[in-house]
Design a protein that fits this description.
Shape: globular
Structural class: alpha/beta
Number of strands: 14
Number of domains: 2
Strand order of the largest sheet: 3-2-4-5-7-6-12
Distance between the termini: 51 Å
Helix content: 25-40%
CATH superfamily of the largest domain: Thiamin diphosphate (ThDP)-binding fold, Pyr/PP domains
Order of helices and strands: EHEHEHEHHEEHEEEEHEEHEHEHH
Strand content: 15-25%
CATH topology of the largest domain: Rossmann fold
CATH architecture of the largest domain: 3-Layer(aba) Sandwich
Number of helices: 11
């Protein structure tokens, strides 16, 4: 049975259900459990729900230690850029331990962080930096675009025996959607076809999934039938579903809020070029943010970021229907 929940409520429901199911799941961060009225404190107590020092190095380091000791910590980091303060823990400690121990220890922890707050926040906390974590062996990266996936991917992340970076988009926070009740898991490495079509494949991540669907609706009015693929996790990446769609359509547009040379779309483009080149009837086209810091000015911010019109223009270009300039 499903009912409508905001994106952030769906994430919280997953954490709450996993904590009720498994008493090794911990939840802590710099701005939670600050009062007795905190819903998680009321449900699970201060032993399992804690406020931490203002130190990302400390809280992520504690998570690694707790995970090695048999717990499943979820660290509330709020902003993805805060992870950069603790990159030794994120990149060089948590993902390496299982491999270096020959699988004798596991490191089941979730680093929950928001990204892409492009609403006048200028240079800081507006980045879409998820792709930098996809090349770290042992680290998984989830990028939910809907409330249902936010719940299902968080539950899967908590149960995984590897460290997971769970990135949620700020501008999706209050977006409502149908969310299944009770236990609900979305497997890692399994993309979702958000819209079927035969003319062009649009692969979009995170907040851009909604933009891609809006663009597809606009293109449909022109007689262009776009298929929209949401990878849901970018590590592991469901390359097979993407390649199957490209084989069907022969045309592909990749949409990513990250900067062009720091994007997940660049990785996807490389996979398509190597494994799906024979299917292509036009060059792979990327619609990404410009390689620039997000500006404070709203018109300049819009200039830098991808949007529906840019996606529509890219699709027309790959199909050869764009007007000659």
């Amino acid at each position: 049975m499903a009912r409508e929940l905001p994106y952030i409520a769906a994430i919280n429901e997953a954490i709450r259900l996993e904590m009720a199911r498994d008493d090794t799941v911990l939840y802590y961060g710099q701005n939670i459990a600050t009062t007795e009225n905190d819903e998680f404190v009321q449900a699970f107590g201060h032993d399992r729900v804690r406020v931490t020092p203002i130190s990302e190095t400390a809280e992520i380091g504690m998570a690694v230690g707790a995970a090695l000791a048999g717990y499943r910590p979820v660290v509330e980091l709020y902003m993805a850029e805060f992870m950069l303060v603790a990159m030794d823990q994120v990149v060089n400690e948590a993902p390496r331990m299982r491999y270096m121990s020959g699988g004798r220890v596991t490191v089941p922890l979730v680093l929950k962080a928001g990204y892409g707050f492009t609403a006048g926040w200028s240079g800081q906390h507006t980045g879409s930096i998820y792709a930098m974590f996809t090349g770290v062996p042992g680290l998984k990266v989830a990028l939910p675009a809907t409330p249902a996936d936010a719940k299902g991917l968080m539950a899967t992340a908590i149960r995984d025996d590897n460290p997971v970076c769970f990135f949620h988009h700020y501008l999706l926070t209050l977006e409502p959607g149908e969310v299944p009740e009770g236990e609900y898991l979305v497997p890692f490495g399994q993309a979702a076809i958000r819209r079927t079509g035969g003319d062009v494949t649009i692969v979009a991540t995170g907040w851009m999934v909604g933009k891609a669907l809006a663009a597809a609706a606009a293109l449909a009015a022109e007689g262009i039938d776009a298929e929209v693929v949401d990878p849901r996790t970018i590590q592991p990446l469901d390359t097979d579903t993407i390649l199957a769609s490209v084989a069907k359509t022969g045309h592909v547009v990749l949409v990513d809020q990250a900067t062009r040379h720091g994007s997940a779309s660049a990785i996807i483009a490389a996979e398509i070029a190597e494994r799906g080149f024979s299917s292509l009837r036009a060059a792979v086209t990327q619609v990404t943010a410009l390689d620039a810091t997000i500006p404070y000015s709203e018109p300049m911010e819009a200039f830098v970021l991808p949007d529906e019109a840019k996606i529509v223009g890219a699709v027309r270009g790959v199909l050869g229907t764009a007007p000659v300039s």
